[in-house]
Amino acid sequence: MKEWVDDFSAIRYATFFVPSVNTDGTDLVMHGNDIIDARQIATDLNVADLESAEWARAQSIQIDRYWSGDPAPSSRHAEARILWSNKALHLRFVCHQGEPLIINDKPQQEKRTMGLWDRDVCEIFIAPDPQVVERYFEFEAAPTGEWTDIAIHWTPEKRESDWEFASQMTTAARVETERVTIAMRIPWSERIPEPQPEDRWRVNLFRCVGKDPDRGYLAWQSTKTPKPNFHVPQVFGWLVFV
User: Fold this and answer.
1) Domain count within the chain
2) Nearest-5° angle of CA 80, CA 56, CA 103?
3) How many other β-carbons are positioned within 10 Å of the β-carbon of residue 207?
4) Could you tell me the residue range of the domain that residue 161 belongs to?
5) Cα separation of 21 and 34, whole Å?
6) pLDDT digits (tens, 9 = 90+) for 130-188
7) CATH of residue 90
């Protein structure tokens, strides 16, 4: 999504550098409304298999509020489901589409599409190391199948974006009447290693929809920043591999 870093210069350090453990060394508490159970599957999925029976057995995650915490209209709601195999992380969004699509008129899928966050898009941010939540990965996919992947690192001074990061992610999308389905496949790699059962990562999910002045920025875990901003890792929820 759009970057609002300059608007938050006075609160950067307090906002983005928070401990991943309590002062007594115990883990931060996970609550029922900030936990996603990612179910393991025996056989890796083709990213284009949007109707696999495996999806029906995955947890349904509702994305129905704006970044501010205010409820979004049902015509903008999205549902996400997450699976994993020994080869990749799989994610599927099913989005209500009650307004015209805001998409690139000349889409391409061969390489990263810059500025995707200015159009309709679904996103996942993941931090594989819950103790270093200021280092995370951003993945975006559009109704056109376009995609973006970025490695993020927050320092006390600024947000650093690694545009050389190459996840080898793939995407698939299907547009129907008042419904858009978007899938991502993110393969395990040196930087995003295969998890083990019961591992816990940090995560947040987002949807951008519509155009100004009524553009919608939806977040699974609300960031509650003054302006729309998804890059608030201390509010990330938990992704538990089961």
Assistant:
1) 1
2) 35
3) 27
4) 5-241
5) 16
6) 999 999 999 999 999 999 999 999 998 999 999 999 999 999 999 999 999 999 999 99
7) 2.60.40.1190
